[in-house]
Amino acid sequence: MASSPLENLIPLVNKLQDLVFNTIGSDTIDLPQVVVVGSQSSGKSSVLENLVGRDFLPRGSGIVTRRPLVLQLINVSPADVYPHGDSEWGEFLHLPGQRFSDFSLIRGEIENETARIAGMNKGINRLPINLKIYSPHVLNLTLVDLPGLTKIPIGDQPTDIERQIRMLISEYIAKPNSIILAVSPANVDLVNSEGLKLARQVDTSGKRTIGVLTKLDLMDHGTNALEILSGRVYPLKLGFIGVVNRSQYDIQENKSLSEALRAEEEFFQCHPAYRNIAHRCGTQYLAKSLNQTLMSHIREKLPDIKARLNALIGQTQQELNGYGTSQFSGKQHRGSLILHFLTKFANSFIASIDGTSSDISTKELCGGARVYYIFNSIFGRELENIDPTHNLAVSDIRTAIRNSTGPRASLFVPELAFDLLVKPQIRLLEAPAQRCVELVYEELTKICHSCTSTELERYPRLQAKLIEVVSDLLRERLTPTQTYVESLISIQGAYINTNHPMFLGGAGAVNSIVNSKHDREKKHKDLERKKDRKRVYNIITRQELIFGKQITGTNGRNTPVDPHEIPNGTSSPVLVSASDEMPPPHEIPRANGVNHSQSHRESSASATASARDSFLNYFFGQKEDPSNSRVVEPSFSHSMRRIDAVSSARPPQLSSLASKLEENAVVDEPQLTEREQMETDLIRSLITSYFNIVRETISDLVPKAVMHFLVNHSKDSVQNRLVTDLYRESLLDDLLFEDEGLALEREKCEKMLEVYKEAARIISEIL
Ligand SMILES: Nc1nc2c(ncn2[C@@H]2O[C@H](COP(=O)(O)OP(=O)(O)OP(=O)(O)O)[C@@H](O)[C@H]2O)c(=O)[nH]1
């Protein structure tokens, strides 16, 4: 009888299953199958044996099923029999071509095969045993028997046996294409069914779970499972089916399975509770519904499986491409293959620098962007941070000026001293410049190490050689780059171009220091004024404390005296407020009525001009005014004299207190003549101005030099260098030595691709 294509669905899936297990060794396609789960001794093996109608599964105490058993039941017509006349037989996938018509031998082989992989103790193993049973009495079905859930390890079982079994079961039932056959004994409360609990975790809506209730014959008298079997207790879309298997006693009494199936039928037909639903109970009904459910499930899932296969074909093809192109396989193509890798490596190196690489990171700077970062951020910042007059003490400048003028005093700007001092400062730029070269060199080395691919990893020796050659090239470029950069600095030091348009020059420097001198003096005076005010206030307050009475001002009031009212040179103690509104002491009107503040403002306007005049006069030929060469007197000395006047009449204790305060206020400043101070300032500002010009030039030239000598040169010559060094007949065999692990991976990948293509072809025969 010719069967329709849809009736061939289960054999088709079996064919796919064989294909997958024979080649890949695991079910990556997620083929539809029925997975049997339940707690230990719930009756799983008994259900399977009933479905086959033969005793073939191992029995014993404790855990018996220790590896998944993938059981394919194949319906054969009585005509299609074994040559020796047997109508039923079994075949193991691991023993191809060997037919087992004696079912007790099948049991023995399952035991042996379990022990071979899972050991003699009671441990489990995830590697499945695949068994086909051909019989005219079975319906086409693919079932997976799994170890029963156990709570407590017994004997020499591993302590985490429960976790191991749960993980194994979950792995099978989690696959969306699996139908879960959850076996629960009827004599145990359903809420304690481990099989149902696990099934619910992965199939929350109960769409692909079939409940099987065993041991209905063992329920307490007066109780029955009618409610459960009618689907009113536990919601499962595919429902519950009740079965009665052989009891332990039946087995011991060698009750045959055909006898047992008859007894089961009788049980349901005669039982007062199940009589009316007897046609929906028992092993025969279970086999039929499983077959139909599996078939419709396969029908439903086939388009998905086809789509999945296409996706797998695409993925695997891509993975295979990653291992290299097959276009250059074979000895005659070794040269082309090497050239292909050399070009790819060189291109990848160049692309990483240019930023045109296809796998650019979004997490961190890489390749050429790092080089830019080194130029602009690292090198740029280091240059910025250099102090142009770093390490130039006043004494150094003084000595340089003195040495440069010989026995005479200089008439003009001491140029020789400037020359002498600015050269070492220019050298300060060399260390950051050389560091910039090194950093870029390191970055290029990193880039060269990252230019590998899975394809290239297949040839570890070639990969190492490519990196080595490019590293050598970079190293060779390092010295010329460093030498050039060193020259750049030396060139800058070789000739001090005081004619540079950006250079401040003598006149500019004079202006600048005159201005800054004036600013400095102004600041210094302001500071001294503040100090004076505070000092006067402290002295008066102390007097008040010492004499223990309120000091009354000359106005006779018991309030602070308006400081404007204090006559110049008065010896009377005065109470002065320390508030900021209080006019500074130099604004206190003198006896002659001249406001000091006013005179100060007038004189300050002309201060800049007069200072500049005296400075220019000094440098450009006027005879030195002996009064100018006096030691610069700290400007607070004037104020100090005023305070002395105020405190001259104070008691001795107060006098010593005040003198202590005054001592503390004396600043230890270098004693320079005005001329010396100005010369030093002038030299400093000239050095700073010139250094800034050189710094700008260097910050512009060094990156250009690095790009030219190191980066661009390496980019331009990398391909030639690789070909010259590696494209040699004598090296080909060694360079194309394939990594064994990767060769195996590639072969596996090729095999998988073939399997997926074949599976897709099988499915397209039906769809
Ligand atoms: N009376 C009776 N006994 C049953 C029934 N089903 C199973 N048994 C007995 O229960 C015991 C366990 O049955 P198995 O089929 O070995 O249970 P299992 O779930 O395969 O056990 P493991 O493989 O160890 O997890 C055996 O002694 C069976 O004879 C049933 O419906 N009625």
UniProtKB/TrEMBL annotation:
EC numbers on record: 3.6.5.5
A single MF term (Gene Ontology): GTPase activity
Native species: Neolecta irregularis (strain DAH-3)
Cellular component GO terms held in the UniProt record: cell division site; cytosol; microtubule; mitochondrial outer membrane; peroxisome
Family named by the database record: Belongs to the TRAFAC class dynamin-like GTPase superfamily. Dynamin/Fzo/YdjA family.
Keyword GTP-binding (UniProt): yes
Keyword field contains Phosphoprotein: yes
Region (Disordered): 552-608
Keywords, in A-Z order: GTP-binding, Hydrolase, Membrane, Mitochondrion, Mitochondrion outer membrane, Nucleotide-binding, Phosphoprotein
Protein name, as recorded: dynamin GTPase
InterPro entries, per the entry: Dynamin (IPR022812), Dynamin_GTPase (IPR001401), Dynamin_GTPase_CS (IPR019762), Dynamin_N (IPR045063), Dynamin_stalk (IPR000375), G_DYNAMIN_dom (IPR030381), GED (IPR003130), GED_dom (IPR020850)
Residue intervals of the GED domain: 680-767
Residue span, Dynamin-type G domain: 28-303
UniProt-listed Pfam families: Dynamin_M, Dynamin_N, GED
